[in-house]
Design goal:
α5 crosses α6, α11 packs parallel to α12 and α12 packs parallel to α13. By secondary structure, the protein is of the alpha/beta class. β1 and β2 form a beta hairpin. The chain has a single domain, classed as Glycosidases (TIM Barrel), CATH 3.20.20.80.
């Protein structure tokens, strides 16, 4: 009896300790695991699909989510932004899943990652799930901010293995392509430390974008960039067949496409080594992406002429999606600059409404225009991160109302308006 009790009491004590730990901290895990299982967004022809229904997107860009999640004092902004987007009925946010070299780098050097920053990205994905927002995650920048292809070329050059110091060697240097593939594999197979779900298996992620605004100006024929898109899209799909994939194009027509003369903003747009139709036709690319920046692209035009361009630009690409590509066309950035000499908030509102209305009309007709993401949203106190396009949407009532009305219109088409009582009441108030 003595020997038995001596063994029993330590066991009971250990069990009590385990029970206490579970009751105290287990809820932190359950917060992310008791929710109903989310479906992945898929594609059926020119339509995004969710739960067996067409899925039309009203959303936004906040490139800064991972960066702000690294610092505890800035972290609350991430949750606040996602919560605000959800309250507006927005469904998809595009953000950076890269920071190569430099301050708060995710990838410190080729194949070396900062776990602290990776946990920040874990947090962004987990928070998006909590608020019912899906993320379109971009994998690398064509531009220099947050490292981009420039950083990859610099790494190869510093190690003495780079073929060229040209930034465009990112697309053809075998060493650099190996760096990038290693980064992609590490990211896609990452197990979220909060949810326990590998990124490639997480339906909170809407999809992947190969590169933000790829250009290869050293080869205006487009062959170099085309080869890279084909290779990298196949590589992504070899690891992750769950998620949708896009290139990240601006939408310019290349030198062999007749639309370069009638639709491109100006002659220079066909010289960047990209072509909207050719690049988007790649079999492993699920949907086409397009950007809209009339202020930066067109000089010496009136506001009305810029709006005319926007309509023509969008309708041309929607037509391509419907007839040539057989894929959804997603306008993943659109912005109106406040640096124009005659800038007025009413002009920006009209610009927004033009784009949102074209998406709405396309959705009603079941055409290829699948949605649009405004560039870009912030919360208060983020002036240092803003550019000439960013806004805090609820600070301007007319702008805020326009986005809510679009969310309501698209939800009505999709037949999802009745699923969320709070959102339904918001839509009734906005009428």
């Amino acid at each position: 009896m003595v020997a038995g009790n001596g063994l029993l009491y330590p066991i009971l004590g250990f069990a009590s300790c385990v029970a206490f730990i579970y009751m105290s901290f287990g809820n932190l895990w359950l917060v992310y695991h008791e929710e109903p299982e989310l479906p992945f967004v898929t594609r059926n022809g020119t339509q995004f699909m969710l739960d067996g229904r067409p899925f039309y997107i009203n959303g936004w860009n906040s490139y800064w989510l991972m960066d702000h999640s690294v610092e505890e004092d800035r972290k609350p902004r991430v949750s606040a932004m996602l919560e605000a987007g959800a309250k507006m009925g927005l469904t998809v946010c595009r953000t950076w899943a890269f920071n190569d070299g430099g301050y708060n780098a995710l990838q410190v050097s080729p194949g070396r990652f900062d776990e602290r920053v990776f946990k920040a990205l874990d947090y962004v994905i987990a928070e998006a799930r909590q608020h019912g927002i899906r993320l379109l995650l971009s994998l690398v920048n064509n531009l220099k901010p947050y490292g981009g292809k420039t950083q990859y070329v610099k790494w190869a050059w510093e190690e003495g293995v780079g073929l060229s110091s040209s930034n465009d060697s990112f697309f053809f240097d075998p060493t650099i392509k190996r760096y990038f593939k290693n980064y992609v594999k590490t990211l896609l197979t990452r197990k979220n430390t909060i949810t326990g779900i590998e990124y490639r298996n997480d339906p909170s992620i809407f999809g992947w974008e190969l590169m933000n605004e790829p250009r290869c100006m050293s080869d205006p024929s487009g062959d170099t960039l085309q080869d890279w898109i084909e290779e990298m899209s196949a590589f992504v799909k070899s690891i992750d067949k769950n998620h949708l994939l896009t290139v990240g194009l601006e939408g310019f027509y290349g030198p062999k496409n007749p639309k370069r003369l009638t639709v491109n903003p100006e002659d220079w747009a066909s010289t960047f080594g990209s072509d909207f139709v050719r690049n988007s036709k790649v079999p492993d690319i699920d949907f086409a992406s397009v950007h809209i920046y009339p202020d930066h692209w067109i000089q010496g035009r009136t506001f009305e002429e810029k709006l005319t361009f926007v309509s023509k630009w969008m309708l041309s690409h929607i037509e391509d999606g419907h007839y040539e590509l057989g894929k959804p066309v997603f306008f993943t950035e659109y912005g109106f600059s406040n640096l124009n000499n005659d800038f007025q908030h009413s002009q920006r509102d009209q610009f927004y409404k033009t784009i949102l209305h074209i998406i709405y009309k396309s959705a009603k007709r079941k055409r290829a225009g699948a949605g649009a993401l405004v560039w870009q949203f912030f919360v208060q106190g983020m002036e240092d991160f803003n550019d000439d396009f960013g806004i805090v949407p609820w600070e301007i009532s007319s702008t805020y109302r326009s986005f809510i009305e679009q969310s309501c219109r698209l939800a009505k088409i999709q037949g999802t308006l009745l699923q969320n009582q709070n959102f339904r009441e918001l839509c009734l108030q906005s009428q």
